[in-house]
């Protein structure tokens, strides 16, 4: 029987459990962007409690981004020093950590909110260079890799989506072309840095002419071919309730995706109790699962689960932390 606290291999990374902590917003920084003691304390609790892999809070490319006021900054003077302390904390507990890059707007030098169809080749090269530079900064700060968010409604999610991308050059049209902007980034990072590259994608969307389950699997295959080391599934308004007998559509999709790839796939969603999570592990192809809001409600809850052999998060899924864009819980 598989268990969420199994030690396991995740590509080239060794994990102490199958649980991936995924960060969202960061609102506890001090003036100038420097990290507060509360942030170091939070990472210590997460890393020491039984987490297998940590994905940081979201970083944006520049201060004009839609989510910049609620996100971590790559561009303040203390970035490398501060985050080297964070990554050292994680590594002291043998927990690898990825820096999460997620940006909504992109400034191509001519338009602060240039959409995928607006970008000239020079704008695409500028974007690719900025993402590669972000990976290099993560490397300097001791991160084990980068996670590039191409899910939800972030910029690169729109770029690869046929609903938004109507380009008629080598970066538009078929799946390979739409993913090319990311494939080229991945190839450079893998060639020049010793970094794990993880990509977040959506399974589908609800737009006519948008991303289908079949298309997103093709996207994942292109990312794997380019050198991506893992895929994390993300989506909005999807329930992951599971009774061990019937799978909801998202779990069916996850099984198909895992069968289609050689690299690890992380299942994300409203996972809240140990029994349900172990049921998923033992009744599907899923090997790794991510959690986000439960760590906001209680950073070290996994220690109790591991000690007791069971447990349920105190998170009530009110979604206030996410919708109000804060890194602290409104109730606890």
TrEMBL record:
<dbReference type="GO" id="GO:0016491">
    <property type="term" value="F:oxidoreductase activity"/>
</dbReference>
<keyword id="KW-0560">Oxidoreductase</keyword>
<dbReference type="InterPro" id="IPR051799">
    <property type="entry name" value="NADH_flavin_oxidoreductase"/>
</dbReference>
<dbReference type="Pfam" id="PF00724">
    <property type="entry name" value="Oxidored_FMN"/>
</dbReference>
<dbReference type="GO" id="GO:0010181">
    <property type="term" value="F:FMN binding"/>
</dbReference>
<protein>
    <submittedName>
        <fullName>NADH oxidase</fullName>
        <ecNumber>1.-.-.-</ecNumber>
    </submittedName>
</protein>
<keyword id="KW-0285">Flavoprotein</keyword>
<dbReference type="InterPro" id="IPR001155">
    <property type="entry name" value="OxRdtase_FMN_N"/>
</dbReference>
<dbReference type="InterPro" id="IPR013785">
    <property type="entry name" value="Aldolase_TIM"/>
</dbReference>
<feature type="domain" description="NADH:flavin oxidoreductase/NADH oxidase N-terminal">
    <location>
        <begin position="110"/>
        <end position="306"/>
    </location>
</feature>
């Amino acid at each position: 029987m598989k268990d969420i606290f199994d030690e396991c291999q995740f590509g080239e990374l060794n994990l102490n459990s199958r649980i991936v902590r995924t960060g969202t917003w960061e609102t506890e920084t001090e003036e100038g962007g420097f990290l507060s003691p509360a942030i170091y304390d939070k990472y210590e609790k997460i890393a020491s409690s039984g987490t297998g892999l940590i994905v940081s809070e979201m970083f944006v490319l520049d201060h004009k981004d839609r989510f910049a006021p609620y996100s971590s900054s790559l561009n303040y003077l203390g970035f490398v020093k501060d985050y080297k302390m964070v990554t050292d904390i994680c590594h002291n507990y043998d927990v690898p950590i990825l820096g999460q890059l997620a940006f909504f707007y992109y400034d191509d030098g001519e338009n602060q909110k240039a959409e995928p169809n607006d970008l000239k080749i020079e704008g695409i090269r500028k974007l690719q260079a900025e993402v590669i530079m972000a990976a290099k900064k993560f490397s300097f700060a001791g991160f084990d890799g980068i996670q590039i968010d191409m899910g939800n409604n972030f910029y690169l999610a729109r770029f690869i989506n046929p609903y938004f991308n109507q380009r008629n050059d080598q970066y538009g049209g078929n799946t390979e072309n739409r993913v090319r902007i990311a494939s080229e980034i991945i190839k450079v990072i893998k060639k020049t840095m010793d970094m794990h590259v993880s990509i977040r994608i959506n399974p589908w969307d609800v737009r006519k002419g948008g991303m289908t389950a079949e298309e997103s699997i093709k996207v994942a295959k292109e990312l794997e071919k380019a050198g991506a080391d893992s895929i994390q599934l993300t989506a909005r308004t999807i329930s992951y309730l599971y009774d061990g007998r019937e799978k909801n559509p998202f779990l069916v999709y996850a099984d198909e995706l895992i069968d289609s790839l050689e690299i690890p796939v992380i299942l994300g969603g409203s996972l809240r109790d140990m029994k349900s999570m172990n049921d998923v592990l033992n009744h599907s192809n899923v090997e790794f699962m991510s959690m986000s809001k439960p760590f906001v409600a209680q950073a070290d809850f996994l220690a109790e689960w591991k000690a007791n052999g069971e447990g349920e998060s105190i998170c009530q899924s009110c979604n206030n932390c996410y919708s109000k864009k804060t890194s602290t819980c409104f109730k606890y």
